[in-house]
Amino acid sequence: MTTLTYPLSRIEGHARVVIDIHDDEVFRADFQAMEMRGFSYYVQGVPAEQITVIVPRICGVCSTAHQVASVKALEDLFGVTPPPLADEIREVLLLGQLIQNQATSLFIFTMPDRVNASSLFEMGENPESKERQFSLAQMSLKIRKIGTDLITLAGGQFIHPIKTVIGGVTSSIPREKADSMIKTIEELLPVAVNLVDNYWQMSMEMVDRIGTWGDDEPTYYLTSTEANNFRLNSDRLRVMCEKGKECHIFAPQEYEKFINIESSDYSYAGVSDFQGHIMRANSLARINLTESFGTPIADAYLKRFGDAHGKPAHAILFFDLCRGIELVYALEKAKQMLETDLQNGETMVKYQPRDGIGFGLVEAPRGPLIHRYEVESGLIKNADFIIPTVHNMLAIRRALMVAAKRYVSADGINSELERAVGRVVRAFDPCIACATK
Amino acid sequence: MESKKELPKFAVLQLSGCSGCEVSLLNSDEWIKNFDLVYMPLVVSTHKIPEDVEVLLVSGGVRTDEDLHNLLKGASRSKKVIAVGTCALSGGVAQIGEGHISRETYLDSAHRLRLPSMLPRAYPIDKYVHVDLYLPGCPPTPELFITALTEAEDAKIASIVCQECGRKKLTDMRPTSISGRRSGTPDPEICLINQGYLCVGTSTRGGCGALCTRPGHACVGCRGPANPYLNKDPEFVLDNLRRVFTRMTDIPLEEINAELASPWLSLFLGQFTDYTQDQSLPQRTKEKMI
User: Fold this and answer.
1) B184: region left, alpha or beta (phi > 0 left; psi from -120 to 50 alpha)
2) 3.40.50.300, 1.10.645.10, 3.40.50.150, 2.40.160.20: which CATH number matches A2-435?
3) Where are the domains positioned within chain A?
4) Which residue(s) pair with A33 in the sheet?
5) B17–A42 C-beta distance less than 8 A
6) Of the partner residues A12, A141, A166, the one whose CB lies closest to the CB of residue B29
7) Model pTM score
């Protein structure tokens, strides 16, 4: 038996892929998380109201989603309804995170794969390609920074936001700050569109070269966004089943009826299934379950994607293209929202803590994220974090099998396999810190 | 652009942490021009730290045997080591459950086949390697990263968070309990302590631009204690905070003491006071702090 081990880079966290081959046949392909965070253990006994500062530290990439999910779980538990203005500001915050994340995944993590480079910062050999690469890197970081600036504007701290608190948000968004942000978005939206078009073109060229968009068998798809009113500050989950039909809608409180989560002997990350079926979350799941974004450029991309690849679409490299569509949507939507009045009105209501069980849901960049807390005598008795990367685990394994079988034969192991493994995993944009909680 | 060969080699080693420090670093593009990034698995597909690295940034705590191996290897190949963020400076958020019964369950559940093993706790990196510069913060701002990378010698850092906060401290607004966070929108101009918040900005190192307190969230102390409290017993820092709250509020001492023992403070205040208890750790002087 031969075991191939591929350490992974350009993803969040420490992970590797292990492929076992016996008699020229692949019989196992595994994705292993190499670290364990342990939050569900060490928040036990923490005063409930303090958990909103602690749990964003599960992950510095998804911290915004964790912070908002955490606050929403305690609001559910304490019976608090935040004012409408707070909900709007939280949505702007989550859009900021979507921009930051999709820009990172597109430009820093996966664009180098399109040209077989080792990083976005790897400069070309001749002066012309060097200059092109340098400007590409700078533009990419500029687009990414809009996300960070939005998080700062709507969330205060820029990595582990603090403005979202139990009862609302601590302060509103002043008109002049919103205006200056709008100006930046107006200036850079064409740059982002240009980058996404470039990325799309580079992806087509890559697929011409390698001859596949990857594992394209249907799966279930899971999102908490709506078909026509795309909101990340969400309140229910939707599922698309085999035939492309929406088959379940459920509240976060009901997740255990549908989603089964188990731990693994070979990985610090858990594995989940949807009533026995493989499912996918993240960008492709959202696009498959979206009819309209309600913003002009993103809707044009949505149509272009559907016309070219059908809906629902299943091949895994479409996840990457869908991230581009969502990046454009989030920029357009953030601008729309900043044009409304986010300055005047009540931002926070008073509350009294109480014991009980509460659930908080948001659509994180990787899919629906649920926090479930049980509070006794004001302290956290149990905390569960239901993580979208875990929902993709079976789909990642299957896609790795498909790739491994493509490149392993009686003639030997094709050297393209290592690159294929990277492309497969990055298409799912897994987050290891989160997956091990 | 300068030729790649003339630029100093720059490497970023991530141990067990949340990637937030790396995400912060990526929010600034100024360092791209000054360094040749040779190792940073989050953005570069290289799995080996090369020889002759000029500057090695280390984030994350030493949590697994693999972390320790990578740290020792990385530091031996680098001229200068900068410890970045709460986890590299103290082990970080993983220390919250220290002493709690859940820790045993956690470690018991952490055995896997063919994967790195967990150490008994997460350690700060200077337990194992020499550190030239410390950059505290959870995470440090992009501006602080640039300061640490390019102008550490001339750095002018605000001594405490209050210096950059701008909220007014009042003498005639004395809360009687720490319940500000339950009372609706805070006043944007007045000190959060006056409004009944447990804010520790008075003893916390500045330089962050008071990112949290200005929009209305109490400082939890992520930059660690200010210079006067470095290398001091934890009680010394807590005493100072007690004095601030006694001077500015009418909150009963028992309530102040209970709140000061909060996990969200121990997460950060502990990061610098903890290590004074461990004789195997080197002293951290103010000259080495950003």
Assistant:
1) left
2) 1.10.645.10
3) 2-435
4) A15
5) no
6) A141
7) 0.95
